[in-house]
C-alpha cells in the first residue's frame, strides 16, 4: 500500500495544480475533471464480480471520448457507464480507493470511502498529501501534458503550458530545467521553459506532418545545479490542422472494361493519400467524377463510389458497344476532397483513362463469295489472297482470322496461311498440280477467329467462300523410271556389250511427243546410249579396280529430251554394280630384306601376298621359291598363314646383295601367278650396326627379332 500511496500522491498533486490551469477550451462554465471529488460506499459483505457500487461524475468538457480511468485497488475498475465495479469476487477492500480520470483535456482524482470494511484506517486526500514519504522531501513536481496546434501564428515565443512545484516543507530556491528533442536537442530551441516560473513556451510554429509529438523532461535544481525534483517526463502533442491536400500517386490512371459488360461492373479503383491526421476529418476523403470526355452517348457513363473510390459502369450493356461508340477511350477527371467532402475541404485531381475492350461479337466475312486463281502445273507458291472484313478490334484474337479448306483438296495440295499485317488468307500450292490429271479444281474455304464467338453470335454463309483454281498446261520434261536404275555386270566384259535399257516417259500424255537420249555424265568414258532405243552399251572395258569405282559401283547420268515447244528435259541415273574378275596377278611385300654375314638357319623375312582382286580371286596365296637350280640348298620358304610365308637362310653368305626369285599364285579360277624377286642384303654386323652393300648404303640397326611377328601371323 505504501507504493500505491506514493503514486496516488503524485496523481493528487498533479490534479491540484492542473485544475487551476484549465482556462482554455471547453464550453462556458465547464471545469474539466470529476464534478464530485468524494464518494462513499457502504460495505455489507463481500463484493461480487460486476456489482455496480456507484457511478462517478466526470466531464472533460469535450464529450469524454478519450477518457481512461485507473483505480488504486486493481480489483476494481470504472466501466463505460462510469460505474465502479469489482473485476472479481472480493471478500473486502481497502477502506479508501482513489480513481484517476485522464484525457487530453483533464487529469483528475476522486476519493471513494468504503464504510464498514476491514483494513487499516482510512486515508483521505489530505492525509496522503500531508504524510511523510520515505526518501522524499515534502514536495512534488507536476508536469501536465501539453497540446498545441500546428501552423500557429506569432508573435513568438508563445505560452503553451505551465509546470508546478507543490511543497509542504520549507520554501527553497530552485530553478526549472527542460531537456529533450525540441529543447536542448534538435530541433533545438523550439520549446523553452522559464527558469523561475516553469512556464513552457514555443518559439516558432510546428508541423504535425513532420513531428506529431515531442517527449521532454522537466526537473528542478538549486542554483549550484544540484537536482531537487524530477526529472518528470511529459509530452507536447501537436494538434492537426487541415493543411495538406489529397494527392494521387499517379497523374494518370488507366483501366479497361469489356464491351457489353453489365451495369455496375467495377472498372478500377482510385486511391488518394492525405498527409493530415488519419484520426480526424482532415484526412477523410470523398471522391467525385468532375468531367467525362467525350460525353457521348451519355455524360454519365460511369460512377465513382464516394468513399471507396471504385469506378463502375452506369451505361446499359447494349449501349456499351465498342463498334458503335464514338470512341473506344474515355477520360474521367477525378477529384478527391478531404474533410469528408465538405465545402471547406481541400481537393486533389487526377485523370482516369478507360478503354472499352473488344469481345468477339462479330464474325469475319469474306469480301467476295467467289475467288479465282490460275496456276501452272508443276509450280508451287501463293496463288490467290483471300480478303475478309471483321468489325472487331484489329490485332486482337477476336479479329485475327484462321482459314481452313473444307472440301476440294483430297490430295492436300493446298494450304492457307494468315497474313498478320492485313488478315488476308494466302492460298498456296504446296504439292505441284498435274494438268493431265485435273485442269480445274473448286475449293470451299472457311474463315474463323482465333477467339470463339460470344454465345449469341455465330458464323454465317459469308464466313465461307469458293475458290476456282484453273491449272495451266506446260511442257514437262521426261521422267525416268526407275530412278536410279541399278544393274549388275561383270568387269572386263567385251566392248559393245549390253548394259541396260533406259525408260523415260513424257508426262504430257495428251500430246504425242518423241524422246531422245544422251549421256550426261560418264566419268570413265565407258558407256554409250542409243538416242532412240535408249539401250546402254559398253564403249570401253569396265574395270572394277578403277578409281572411278566406289564400293564396287560405277555411276553414270543420262538425259532425255522431248520435242515439245520449248523442248523439256529430264535426267536419270544408272548404277552398275561390278562383279570381280581375276584379272590382277598377286605380288609380294616387302621386296627387301637384310641379314647378318656368317649367320645361317635363321629367318630372313616374313613376306605377304597382295592382290587387287576380291576373294575368291585373291587369298589364300601360295608363295614358293623360283625354278632356278639349287635355290633350295640356300633358301627355304614355308607357309605361315593364308597370306604370309617366311624365308629362311640355310647357310651363311658373305656380304653382298642377293636377288631371291619367288613365285606367288592366287586362288582365282583360273589362278594367276607372278614371278617376283626379294632383294636380300647380307651385311657385316658389329656394335649393333649393319654395314650393307648398296649404292645407297646406310647404317641401320639390327632387324627386330621376327619371332613375335611370326607368332602374330600364326595366330591370324
UniProtKB/TrEMBL annotation:
Protein name: Cadherin-13
One biological process term in Gene Ontology: homophilic cell adhesion via plasma membrane adhesion molecules
Gene symbol of the encoding locus: cdh13
Bilayer-crossing regions: none
Calcium listed as a keyword: yes
InterPro entries referenced in this protein's UniProt entry, alphabetically: Cadherin (IPR039808), Cadherin-like_dom (IPR002126), Cadherin-like_sf (IPR015919), Cadherin_CS (IPR020894), Cadherin_pro_dom (IPR014868)
Pfam family, one: Cadherin_pro
Residue span, Cadherin domain: 176-248, 249-366, 383-480, 481-588, 611-710
Signal peptide: 1-21
Domain of life: Eukaryota
Subunit relationships: By contrast to classical cadherins, homodimerization in trans is not mediated by cadherin EC1 domain strand-swapping, but instead through a homophilic adhesive interface which joins two elongated EC1-EC2 domains through a region near their Ca2+-binding sites to form a tetrahedral, X-like shape.
Keywords carried by this UniProt record: Calcium, Cell adhesion, Cell membrane, Cleavage on pair of basic residues, Cytoplasm, Glycoprotein, GPI-anchor, Lipoprotein, Membrane, Metal-binding, Repeat, Signal
Annotated GO CC locations: adherens junction; catenin complex; cytoplasm; side of membrane
GO terms for MF: beta-catenin binding; cadherin binding; calcium ion binding
Bilayer topology annotation: Lipid-anchor; GPI-anchor
Primary localization class, coarse: membrane
Subcellular location: Cell membrane; Cytoplasm
Function summary: Cadherins are calcium-dependent cell adhesion proteins. They preferentially interact with themselves in a homophilic manner in connecting cells; cadherins may thus contribute to the sorting of heterogeneous cell types. May act as a negative regulator of neural cell growth.
Amino acid at each position: 500500500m505504501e507504493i500505491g500511496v506514493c503514486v496516488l500522491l503524485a496523481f493528487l498533486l498533479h490534479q491540484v495544480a492542473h485544475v487551476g490551469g484549465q482556462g482554455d477550451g471547453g464550453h462556458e462554465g465547464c471545469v474539466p475533471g470529476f464534478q464530485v471529488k468524494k464518494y462513499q460506499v457502504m460495505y455489507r459483505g463481500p463484493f461480487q464480480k460486476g456489482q455496480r457500487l456507484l457511478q462517478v461524475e466526470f466531464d472533460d468538457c469535450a464529450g469524454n471520448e478519450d477518457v481512461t480511468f485507473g483505480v488504486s485497488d486493481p480489483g476494481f475498475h470504472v466501466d463505460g457507464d462510469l460505474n465502479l465495479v469489482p473485476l472479481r469476487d472480493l471478500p473486502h477492500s481497502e477502506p479508501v480507493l482513489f480513481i484517476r480520470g485522464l484525457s487530453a483535456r483533464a487529469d483528475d482524482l476522486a476519493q471513494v470511502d468504503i464504510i464498514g470494511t476491514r483494513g487499516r484506517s482510512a486515508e483521505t486526500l489530505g492525509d496522503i498529501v500531508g504524510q511523510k514519504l520515505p526518501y522524499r522531501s515534502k514536495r512534488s513536481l507536476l508536469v501536465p501534458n501539453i497540446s498545441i496546434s500546428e501552423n500557429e501564428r506569432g508573435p513568438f515565443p508563445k505560452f503553451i503550458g505551465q509546470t508546478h512545484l507543490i511543497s509542504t516543507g520549507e520554501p527553497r530556491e530552485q530553478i526549472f530545467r527542460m531537456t529533450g528533442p525540441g529543447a536542448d536537442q534538435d530541433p533545438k530551441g523550439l520549446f523553452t521553459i522559464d527558469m523561475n516560473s516553469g512556464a513552457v513556451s514555443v518559439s516558432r510554429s510546428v508541423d504535425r506532418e513532420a513531428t506529431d509529438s515531442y517527449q521532454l523532461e522537466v526537473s528542478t535544481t538549486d542554483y549550484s545545479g544540484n537536482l531537487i525534483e524530477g526529472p518528470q517526463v511529459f509530452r507536447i502533442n501537436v494538434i492537426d490542422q487541415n493543411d495538406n491536400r489529397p494527392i494521387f500517386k499517379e497523374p494518370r490512371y488507366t483501366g479497361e472494361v469489356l464491351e457489353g459488360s453489365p451495369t455496375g461492373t467495377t472498372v478500377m479503383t482510385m486511391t488518394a493519400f492525405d498527409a493530415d491526421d488519419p484520426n480526424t476529418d482532415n484526412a477523410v476523403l470523398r471522391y467525385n467524377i468532375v468531367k467525362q470526355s467525350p460525353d457521348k452517348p451519355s455524360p454519365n457513363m460511369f460512377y465513382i463510389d464516394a468513399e471507396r473510390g471504385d469506378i463502375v459502369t452506369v451505361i446499359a450493356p447494349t449501349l456499351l458497344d465498342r463498334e458503335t461508340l464514338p470512341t473506344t477511350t474515355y477520360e474521367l477527371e477525378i477529384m478527391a476532397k478531404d474533410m469528408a467532402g465538405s465545402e471547406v475541404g481541400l481537393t486533389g485531381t487526377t485523370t482516369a483513362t478507360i478503354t472499352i475492350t473488344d469481345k468477339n461479337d462479330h464474325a469475319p466475312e469474306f469480301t467476295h463469295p467467289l475467288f479465282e486463281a490460275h496456276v501452272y502445273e508443276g509450280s508451287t507458291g501463293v496463288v490467290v489472297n483471300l480478303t475478309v472484313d471483321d468489325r472487331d478490334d484489329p490485332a486482337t484474337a477476336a479479329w485475327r482470322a484462321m482459314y481452313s479448306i473444307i472440301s476440294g483438296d483430297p490430295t492436300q495440295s493446298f494450304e492457307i496461311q494468315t497474313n498478320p499485317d492485313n488478315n488476308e488468307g494466302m492460298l498456296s500450292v504446296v504439292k505441284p498440280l498435274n494438268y493431265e490429271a485435273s485442269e480445274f479444281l473448286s475449293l470451299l474455304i472457311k474463315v474463323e477467329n482465333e477467339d470463339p464467338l460470344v454465345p449469341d453470335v455465330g458464323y454465317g454463309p459469308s464466313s465461307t467462300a469458293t475458290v476456282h483454281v484453273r491449272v495451266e498446261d506446260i511442257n514437262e520434261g521426261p521422267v525416268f523410271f526407275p530412278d536410279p536404275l541399278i544393274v549388275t555386270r561383270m568387269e572386263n566384259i567385251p566392248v559393245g556389250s549390253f548394259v541396260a535399257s533406259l525408260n523415260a516417259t513424257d508426262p504430257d500424255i495428251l500430246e504425242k511427243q518423241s524422246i531422245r537420249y544422251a549421256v550426261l555424265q560418264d566419268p570413265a568414258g565407258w558407256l554409250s546410249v542409243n538416242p532412240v532405243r535408249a539401250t546402254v552399251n559398253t564403249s570401253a572395258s569396265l574395270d572394277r579396280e578403277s578409281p572411278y569405282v566406289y564400293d564396287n559401283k560405277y555411276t553414270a547420268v543420262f538425259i532425255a529430251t522431248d520435242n515439245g515447244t520449248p523442248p523439256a528435259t529430264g535426267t536419270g541415273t544408272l548404277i552398275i554394280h561390278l562383279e570381280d574378275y581375276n584379272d590382277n596377278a598377286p605380288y609380294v611385300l616387302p621386296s627387301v630384306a637384310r641379314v647378318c654375314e656368317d649367320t645361317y638357319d635363321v629367318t630372313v623375312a616374313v613376306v605377304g601376298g597382295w592382290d587387287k582382286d576380291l576373294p575368291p580371286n585373291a587369298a589364300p596365296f601360295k608363295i614358293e621359291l623360283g625354278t632356278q637350280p639349287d635355290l633350295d640348298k640356300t633358301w627355304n620358304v614355308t607357309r605361315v598363314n593364308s597370306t604370309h610365308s617366311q624365308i629362311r637362310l640355310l647357310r651363311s653368305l658373305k656380304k653382298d646383295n642377293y636377288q631371291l626369285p619367288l613365285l606367288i599364285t592366287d586362288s582365282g579360277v583360273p589362278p594367276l601367278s607372278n614371278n617376283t624377286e626379294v632383294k636380300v642384303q647380307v651385311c657385316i654386323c658389329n656394335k649393333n650396326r649393319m654395314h650393307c652393300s648398296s649404292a645407297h648404303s646406310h647404317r641401320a640397326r639390327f632387324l627386330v627379332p621376327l619371332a613375335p611377328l611370326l607368332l602374330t601371323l600364326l595366330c591370324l
